[in-house]
Amino acid sequence: MPRPPTDGPVEKQALTTTSEARKPRSDGSPTNALAADLTRQLGPRKVLHQLSERLNYRYDAIQFGVTPLAVVLPESTADVVAAVKAARAAGVPVVGRGAGSGLSGGSAPMQEALVIAFTRMTALQVFPERREAVAQPGVITLKVTEAARPHGLIYPPDPASFRTSTIGGNLAENAGGPMCLKYGVTGDYVTALEFVDAAGDVHRVTRDAYDLAGLLIGSEGTLGLITEATLRLIPPAKFTRTLMAHFAEVGQAAEAVSAAIAAGAVPAKLEFMDRACTNAIEDYLHLGLPRDAEAVILVDTDGNDLDTVTGELALVEQACAAAGGVTRLARDPAEADALWQARRSISPALGRIRPQRMNEDIVVPRSALPDVVREIRALGDASGFHLVQFGHIGDGNLHPNIMFDPRTESPQAVHDLAHRIALVALRHGGVLSGEHGIGTMKRDFMTDALDPATLDALRDVKRALDPAGTLNPGKILPDPQTPEAPHAHP
Amino acid sequence: MNHDIPVLTLGAQGEVMAHAVDACVHCGFCLPACPTYALLGDEMDSPRGRIVLMKEVLEGHLALPDAAPHLDRCLGCQGCVTACPSGVPYGELITAFRGWSEPQRARSPLDRAKRWAILKALPAPKLFSVAARLGQHAKPLAPVLPAALRGPLDLLPERVPAMQPSPAVTAARGQRRGRVALLAGCAQQALAPNFNAATLRVLARNGIEVVIPDGQGCCGAAALHTGARDEALRLVRTNLRAFNPDDYDAILSNAAGCGAGLKEYPVVLHGLPDEAQARAFAAKVQDISEYLHGLLQGGILEPTLPARTPLKVAYHDACHLAHAQGVKAAPRALLRAIPGVDLVEIPEGDLCCGSAGTYNLEQPELAAQLGGRKARNILGTAPDLIASGNIGCHTQIQSHVRRQGSPVPVMHTVEVLDLAYRGEL
C-alpha cells in the first residue's frame, strides 16, 4: 500500500482513525476559521463544514484519505478563485475532486485540506458548426456525447465510469477507455482549457507555444484546477461490428491481439478480461459469458465502409482462431451493448471477490503482451493472492488487480506484489499509468520508472506552477528527501 | 469497504449491515442512479455517501443526529441496487439501520405524533378510508394549511372512491388451473379499490382461483422502512400466520411496495425463530405481473381483445418492482401482448417518482421536485395512457400529471389488462 504520509493520518486500512476532526457531535457552526471564512464569502449553500458532510469527501473509488477541513461546491470559476485564495490565506492545501470515481487515490486528500468538488459546475454547450463542446468540469462524461449526438457528433473518450465520472476528473487523469485504441485519450480531444492556478489567478490556454494545456491534462490537480474545457467532437462511424473470443490460456489471448494488429486490423475497441473477471461479471449481469475460459477478448471494428469494417473483423477472427480461441459475433446491437456493459462493470464487480484491491494501470508494447500477461499470471499464482487481469489490451494498457482482505491478508505483501508487477512492465519497456494516473497508489514506483534527472525535471515543473506545493500534495511525485520508498520491494 | 462495525453487539441485523458495508467498493457507479444525488449534487446525499455515514455511526465515529438528515432523505427506491456492479444490498442496509437507529432518535412531539398517525392509519384500510374522506373535504383549505398537511392532501384524488370489500374466495372461470392467495393491501383498498377488483377478474378469467385469507394485515413495509421494527415484526408474524404457503401455488401482491415487503420477510426475521417459515413464505411471493407473465410464457394466458384505437402506453417502473424485486420485463410483456398497444419508454425511467412509501409526508419538497420531473418526463412521450404497478406511484404520478394540466389516465397494469379483456380499452 502507499506509505502513510508524513503530515496526516490516512484512513486506509481499518478506518479507525484518530484524526482530531472526529468528535461526537457537531454544533452546526463552521468548525474552523477557513470554513467560517468560506461560508462568509460564498454563502452556506456552497460550503460544507459539518463532519457528516466532510467525511464524504475524503475518498475516491480506491482509497480513503484524510477528512478535509472544509468542502466547497463551486458554481462558477469565480467561486473557485475565491476558494483557492481563502485556502492560500489560511495556509491550507487544495484538492480538486470530480465524482470521486478515480482509481489511483488522486482525489483523496493526504492531509487536512480544502476539497473543491466540481459536481455543480455542469454547464455544457455544443457548437456543432465548429465540432466542439465547451464543458465545465462537473459535466458527466457521457452527457457530452448525449448532447452532441442530435447534431450527428460524439465525444469518443469513454472511460468505464463514463456514466459517473466528470470531464474535470477525466482531464486530471487523462482518462482513456475502450474507444481510445483507435480514437485517442481525453487529452487528444482538448483544444483549450481555462484553469485557476495555485495563487488563484485564472488562465486560458490552448495547445500551442508551450502547450500548457497538455501539461495540465493528466497532472491530477497538482498544477492547477481546470474550470472549463473546449472539447473536440467527431461524427460517429456509420458501421460497427462486435466480436467476442475466448481462450484456454491468457497468453493465447495476448498472442491473438498482437497478431491481429500486426495483420493490419485497427479495431475501435479491443479489450480483455481473465476468468475471475468474467465470473464476477456473470454473477452481476447473467449474460451467459464463458465461465470456464481463462481469457475473453471483446473487439469492435468500425468505419464508414462496411466492407472494411467486416474485413478488419475477419482479420481479428482469424488471429483469434490461429491462437486457439473460439470466436462469436454479436448478433445485434443489443447483444453488443450487453457485452460492452459487461466490460464497463468489471472494475466495481471485482468487489465481489475481496473487499479491497490494489489496482495497476501499466502499459506495455503490444509485442510484449504475451510475455507480460503470462509473467503477471505466474506472479499472481505464486503469491497466493487473488490476482485478476483485464484492460485495454489493444493499447497494451493492462489492469492487473490484486484483491485482498486487509483483516486477513498482509497489505505489505500486496504492495510488494504490486511492485513486482510494475517492474515487469518497466522491464518490458512499459510505463506505470495508462489512464488512471499515478496518484498515491503508484507514487512509490516512480523512482523505478524515471531516472533522477527526469524526476527532478518534473519537480521543477511542479515548483514553477505551484511554488508552495499547496495543490493536491502527496500525489505523483515521491518525496525527494526519502527516495527509497519504505515499502519498496527488497 | 473496510469497517470496524461491532457485529457481535449488534446481533443478526448487525451482520446484515456489516455485510452490505463490506461489499461496497465505493466506486461511485450508484451516483447517477440516485434521485437525491440528481437533485442535490452532493456526496452525502448519494448511496455511497450514505453507506459511509452509516458505517461511521455504527463504528461510533459520528453522532447519529449528524448523519440522520442525509439518511432520512433516502427514498429507499433501490435504484442504486440495480446500478451496483458489486452487489451491495443497500436496501437491506438502510432498512436494518433505520430499525437499529430509530429507538435512539430524539424526535419532536409533533414528529412523533405524525409518525404514529401514519403508521396507524396506513395499515388500517377502514381508518385510512375515513381519513381520506375527511382529507377530501379539507382539500379546499390546503393553501392555508401548514406544509406538513398540504403534501398528503395534494395527493388525495378529487373523489375518494367507496370501499369495495373483496370476496374471501373468487372462483376460477372455466377449468381451474391454479389457486393463489392475494394480499389485499392497505391504503390501496381505500384509494384504488378497482386494483383488487381488476386483479380478481383477470385471474378468474385465466382459470385461477383467488383466496384473500382472513386474518391478513399490512405487509409491514411502511413500519419497517421508517424504523418501527417492533411494529413491523408484529405485522410480519400476523401474515405468516394468515398465509400458509403450502395451500397456494403463489402468494400474490398487486402493489410493488407490498410485494417487495413480503419478499423481504427472511431478512427481517434473519436470526429469529421464524426465519425458516419466512423463507418458505417468501419463496411463494410474486407480483401480479410476474405471475401473469408466467401464464403468458406458458402459452396459457387468455388473449385479450385488441385496443379499440391504437394506444400509446407509457409504462412507469415502480422502484419496488424494478429495483427491489427486479421485475421489469414482465409488465412490459403483458402490455405488449395487447393488440394495438404501443409501449413507450420514459426518459430517466430508472429515477424514482418521489412517492416512496411515506416520503411524500416526510420530505414533501424533494418528493414534489421528483414528482414534477417524473410527470414532465412521462408527458414528454405524449402517451394516451400511463401504466404502473404500485399505488404509491399511481397517486404521485396522477397528482403531478394533473398539476401539469394533463388529463391522461393513470392505471395499474392489471386494470389495463382487465379493460382489454372486456373490450373497453
From TrEMBL, chain A:
Keyword tags: FAD, Flavoprotein, Oxidoreductase
InterPro entries, sorted: FAD-bd_oxidored_4_C (IPR004113), FAD-bd_PCMH (IPR016166), FAD-bd_PCMH-like_sf (IPR036318), FAD-bd_PCMH_sub1 (IPR016167), FAD-bd_PCMH_sub2 (IPR016169), FAD-linked_Oxase-like_C (IPR016164), FAD-linked_OxidoTrans_Type4 (IPR051914), Oxid_FAD_bind_N (IPR006094)
Organism domain of life: Bacteria
Record carries keyword Thylakoid: no
SUPFAM superfamilies, alphabetized: FAD-binding/transporter-associated domain-like (SSF56176), FAD-linked oxidases, C-terminal domain (SSF55103)
Key word Flavoprotein present: yes
Protein name: 2-hydroxy-acid oxidase
Source taxonomy: Bacteria, Thermotogati, Deinococcota, Deinococci, Deinococcales
From TrEMBL, chain B:
Pfam family, one: CCG
InterPro entries xrefs: 4Fe4S_Fe-S-bd (IPR017896), 4Fe4S_Fe_S_CS (IPR017900), Cys_rich_dom (IPR004017), Glc_ox_4Fe-4S (IPR012257), Helical_ferredxn (IPR009051)
Keyword Repeat: yes
Co-factor: note: Binds 2 [4Fe-4S] clusters.
Record-listed E.C. numbers: 1.1.99.14
Reported cofactor(s): [4Fe-4S] cluster
Keywords associated with the record: 4Fe-4S, Electron transport, Iron, Iron-sulfur, Metal-binding, Repeat, Transport
Keyword Electron transport: yes
Enzyme class: oxidoreductase
Single annotated GO MF: glycolate dehydrogenase activity
All copies of domain 4Fe-4S ferredoxin-type, residue ranges: 14-44, 65-94
Catalysed reaction, written as an equation: (R)-lactate + A = pyruvate + AH2; glycolate + A = glyoxylate + AH2
Known role: Component of a complex that catalyzes the oxidation of glycolate to glyoxylate.
Protein name as annotated: Glycolate oxidase iron-sulfur subunit
Organism for this UniProt entry: Deinococcus ficus
